[in-house]
Design a protein that fits this description.
The chain is elongated and about 55 Å long. The chain has four helices and no strands. The chain has one domain. The two termini are about 15 Å apart. It is mainly α.
Length: about 80
């Protein structure tokens, strides 16, 4: 995931995705959260989100699901093909 995040910071989206799709999603989510946090502080309320806990669970659950699927694909399909 570190390689994916580092590639994203260099603007290499394709390499970031190839390294770890969940890392790409996590990096994009972090990048989106920075301006959202600043706007929420500026307006003294959470912007665009009424209930933050379900939103956080949905976001982290989605990224975790992508990470799990990516891991399963690498373990069961790519390791048997000898590409790892």
């Amino acid at each position: 995931m570190t390689t994916s995040f580092a590639s994203l910071m260099r603007g290499q989206l394709d390499q970031s995705f190839r390294a770890n799709p969940a890392g790409l999603l996590l990096g994009l989510a972090c990048a989106a959260l920075v301006p959202w946090c600043w706007l929420s502080v500026f307006y003294a309320r959470l912007c665009w989100i009424q209930r933050p806990v379900p939103a956080a669970v949905w976001l982290l659950g989605s990224i975790s699901a992508v990470a799990l699927i990516q891991w399963l694909v690498r373990v069961f399909f790519l390791s048997s093909a000898g590409t790892i």
